Amino acid sequence: MKVTQRTLHRTLLATAIGCALITPSVNAGALTAIYQQALDQDPQLKAAEAGAKAGAEALPQSRAGLLPSISLTGNTTWIEAENADYNNHGYTVSLSQPLFSASSWFTYQQGIAQSEAASLQFDQAQQSLILRVVNSYLSVLRAQTALETAQAQERAIKRRLDQVNAQFEVGLIAITDVHEAQATYDNAKVARILAEGDLDNSFQALERLTGQPVGAVDPLAKEYPVENISPTEPQAWIKKAQAGNLSLKVAQANTESARRQSQAASSGHLPTLSLTASYDRDKGKSTGNNDWEETNQIGLTLSVPIFSGGATSSISRQAEYGFAQARYTQDDTLRGVIQETRNLLRNLQTNVLSVSARKQSILSSETALKATEEGFNVGTRNVVDVLQAEQQLYSAQRDYANARFDYIQNLFSFKQQVGTLSPDDIIGLDQWMQAR
């Protein structure tokens, strides 16, 4: 589906209205609420909106060169002469309408392209906000997962340390096992402290978006589907990205703007033709006649540039170089879009396999831990083996959670790449967030 500024604006408005109508008793999903707050408070989006409005003014400014201009001038002059001293005063209304000006026409076309580029850049900012909200939200979930894992690991190691101390006191194990367990427990405490700091930092990133503190977020449901998108071949997605990617559209609009600027600069060598008309009302002459005199004029003005010191030729060359630069930039953007579309599609396919493998790794680690604990109880394994097995289990759980978050992050980046990312994706993801 092709995403345009008008489409995004309508969706954003619908989202805003929907969020505004939600009452606290409905228990609105934290992700949607955070996104709504970011819509209202994010300074980057506000700056982009102001920039879009400023860029849109290029159109009426460039169109003005094709429209008539009207001016009013007035004068009063005291004159001292040999024959008489007198005051001359009056006013003149003048109108000028361009009939032929290639430069003004191409400048107008450039204004259209500039206005379109400004609109597309605002669309980019809207998609960027969606991605920043999702990524910041996922960063909090990652940090929460890391903290919960660190806390669980610390508790488990503390129980193991207490068990080892009890066994040492009755002479069942050596002091080295106690030292190993104590060192592992101390490292687990450090990991938990670091995880607490990372969680606080991740909430600060959300506060930057919303302009106010965020107390908690909803976790991702276990049932969230991690599956390949269809089709799995990249060519169809590359074609979609070439038609919908906003970065590429901005580059295309900039290239069109540069092309029109080059045409306008080259038109500086061409003549211009204008229709002129004026009305003059004047009073005060040396002859002593103080009656008002009126003069009406209408005519054509032909201006043929001959030589301007080489400035016109230089400006034309400069604009041509700028046009070439824009073309190369567009080509590079296109190649980047193709590359990134392939990469993200491949990453998504890898994420699906990774999530499945990570889930199986948890089961394997649980089995390995049980076997190691049984070996420790009968004396065939030592406490170091048990601690390592426990660490492997918690690492597997953390890696599984991060693999799911990686899939979501890449999925949203992929949608942005092909130009389909919209607030509906935020709403869809929020349905898989479960309040604690």
From TrEMBL:
Gene3D superfamilies: Outer membrane efflux proteins (OEP). InterPro entries: OMP_efflux, T1SS_OMP_TolC, TolC-like. Its main location: membrane. Residues 252-292 are annotated as: Disordered. The keyword Signal applies. Residues 1-28 form the signal peptide. It is found in: Cell outer membrane. Keywords: Cell outer membrane, Membrane, Signal, Transmembrane, Transmembrane beta strand, Transport. Belongs to the outer membrane factor (OMF) (TC 1.B.17) family. This is TolC family outer membrane protein. It comes from Amphritea atlantica.
